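Structure (tokenized):
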């Protein structure tokens, strides 16, 4: 007499609740989440202070400060009496550089470790003083000269849309790496859970009332939810840190890009998680797991390599094609979205293709899982599991 089975939804829900309870009762899960939040705030704080405007001091000696013209951006002028005073200030690091006037001669003083911006600004101030002195000696009407120069130009004209800067690319790559680590880490947990149930023969009890597909779906959904919770907390931490530190974090992805990344993580994780579950069903001992995980790991690594190559030129023609191809779209699309290179419609088109590929992976994984999960002993080969 066969055991009556529940509906698909109730069976999957039972396994899902079991998996989610196991994760939420783990201290390691919350400790890992806390470390991620601390790391995010540390990185954003570092970006904030790295982008802080820096002001360098240039001493102007032997002539009135106004005779050197306006101070360049990021430069503070400090008056002193003569060349000896300027030399002392630079040597004692009270000033980053000095411009000294002695009679009709102007000199620039700097240390070997003086900031390049301070050195260049001191040279520009010295040239401005020398030019003004030459104008005065030649009795040139400098006010009229400046009006003529201003009328002639130059005019700044922006051509083309440009592209993302290095900070934006770096932040986007960091986000992609985090997504990849989560996919690999949580996918490995799925495989380990399958092996543990198989090695302890718990799976035989579970399959007395569940179908293999329902068991696998509940496990993937439970671990996936725990992973998504971590990503949501990570996104919230980035948004909170950015609002706390303000304008100097403009290199970070926008909130819309972060939400896009979280949704793409969910799609990509679902695709790979079922493959990880299928790989775990092939072995009966935890120590044999790494050998069967290798093909899945290589497949998961491929999008990372492609994303790293694409970061050099996100507008390249091949990138525009590959960003729609699963599983590469799982990392390329959030990378493109983080720098504003793709529209919502393009993401939806790529997501539809990814959903189709995920459906194929679920069917493939279900076949392998069903044919292998109850085979105890030596590892089942991939092709044997498919052919059974």
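Design, position by position:
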């Amino acid at each position: 007499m066969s055991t009556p089975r529940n509906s698909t939804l109730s069976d999957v829900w039972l396994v899902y609740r079991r998996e989610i309870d196991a994760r939420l009762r783990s201290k390691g899960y919350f400790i890992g989440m806390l470390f991620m939040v601390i790391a995010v705030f540390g990185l954003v704080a570092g970006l904030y202070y790295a982008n802080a405007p820096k002001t360098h001091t240039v001493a102007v000696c032997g002539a009135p400060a106004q005779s050197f013209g306006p101070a360049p951006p990021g430069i503070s002028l400090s008056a002193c009496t003569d060349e000896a005073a300027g030399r002392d200030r630079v040597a004692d690091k009270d000033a980053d550089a000095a411009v000294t006037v002695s009679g009709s001669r102007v000199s620039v003083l700097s240390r070997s470790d003086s900031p390049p911006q301070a050195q260049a600004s001191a040279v520009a101030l010295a040239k401005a003083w020398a030019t003004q002195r030459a104008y005065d000696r030649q009795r040139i009407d400098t006010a009229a000269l400046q009006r003529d120069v201003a009328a002639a130009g130059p005019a700044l004209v922006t051509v083309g849309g440009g592209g993302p800067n290095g900070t934006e690319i770096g932040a986007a790559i960091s986000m992609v790496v985090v997504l990849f680590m989560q996919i690999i880490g949580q996918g490995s947990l799925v495989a380990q859970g399958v092996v543990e149930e198989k090695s302890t023969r718990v799976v035989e009890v579970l399959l007395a009332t569940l179908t293999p597909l329902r068991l696998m779906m509940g496990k993937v959904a439970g671990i996936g939810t725990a992973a998504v919770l971590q990503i949501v907390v990570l996104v919230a931490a980035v948004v909170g840190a950015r609002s706390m530190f303000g304008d100097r974090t403009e290199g970070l992805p926008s909130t819309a890009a972060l939400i896009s990344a979280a949704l793409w993580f969910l799609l990509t994780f679902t695709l790979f998680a079922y493959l990880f579950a299928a790989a775990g069903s092939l072995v009966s001992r935890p120590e044999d797991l790494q050998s069967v995980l290798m093909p899945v790991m290589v497949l998961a690594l491929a999008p990372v390599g492609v994303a790293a190559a694409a970061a050099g030129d996100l507008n390249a023609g091949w990138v525009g094609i590959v960003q729609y191809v699963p599983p590469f779209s799982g990392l390329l699309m959030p990378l493109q979205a983080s720098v504003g290179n793709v529209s919502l419609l393009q993401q939806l088109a790529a997501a539809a293709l990814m959903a189709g590929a995920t459906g194929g992976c679920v069917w493939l994984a279900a076949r392998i899982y069903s044919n292998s999960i109850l085979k105890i002993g030596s590892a089942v080969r991939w092709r044997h599991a498919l052919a059974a």
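Reviewer-requested clarification: The radius of gyration is 32 Å. Residues 207 and 386 are 20 Å apart (CA to CA).
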